[in-house]
């Protein structure tokens, strides 16, 4: 009897999740949006293309400002993680932060990949949380991505109030739950990775209220 694909995905996903202990990072996945090549039918604030993303600006003077990070990670010659936006640029314990990843589609993607996000305490005191989510809440799988468009993937990060943590490292990439393998980073020497196809988006400072 053939295995249920949904059940198979859930089993594979659970192998990637380390459940948190009492003091742990909290992360919730929000909705994703698409920045289409033409920009038609998209709100003005979503019509920013990432063909030439701005350079890193991880600590603007005004904490309410967004930080834009240039990444340029090549994933198997099919997708480029062009950059990311973090707003605000500094995390405050107890307050949510929105992060947006910009995936530029270079070629058609034959497999249905999941976006993985790993949030890790820079000092290694808190348990890591892995949150895997399908782009557009599963309504726009990678197999339907069109060459030349930019996919905007948004999610939120929340550090529990009072948690003694000074910063987090954010890693991301694409993962195939059917094969349990990550999409290979083909220019790892030119960007920051952990050597295992996890792309370092950035180290984000955390302030206490």
Can you describe this structure?
- The structure is a single chain.
- By secondary structure, the chain is mainly beta.
- It has a single domain (5-35, 65-207), classed as Immunoglobulin-like (Sandwich).
- The protein has one helix and twelve strands, in the order αββββββββββββ.
- The chain has one helix spanning 5-15; strands spanning 26-28, 33-35, 67-75, 79-87, 91-92, 96-105, 114-121, 129-133, 150-158, 167-176, 181-182, 199-207.
- Strands 1, 2, 3, 4, 6 and 9 form a six-stranded antiparallel beta sheet that branches. Strands 5, 7, 8, 10, 11 and 12 form a six-stranded mixed beta sheet that branches.
- Residues 14-61 have low confidence and may be disordered.
- Beta-sheet strand percentage? 35-45%
N-end to C-end Cα span = 55 Å
Helix content: under 10%
Distinct helical segment count: 1
Q: CATH class, anyone?
A: Mainly Beta
Determine Rg (CA atoms, Å).
Answer: 17 Å
Please outline the major beta sheet: 6 strands, antiparallel
H and E string: HEEEEEEEEEEEE
How many β strands by DSSP?
12
- Looking at the chains present, what oligomeric state does this protein adopt? single chain
Shape descriptor reads globular
Based on the coordinates given, report the CATH architecture. Answer: Sandwich
Write down the overall mean pLDDT.
76
Low-pLDDT segments? 14-61
Global structural class: mainly beta
* Total separate domains: 1
**CATH topology group:** Immunoglobulin-like
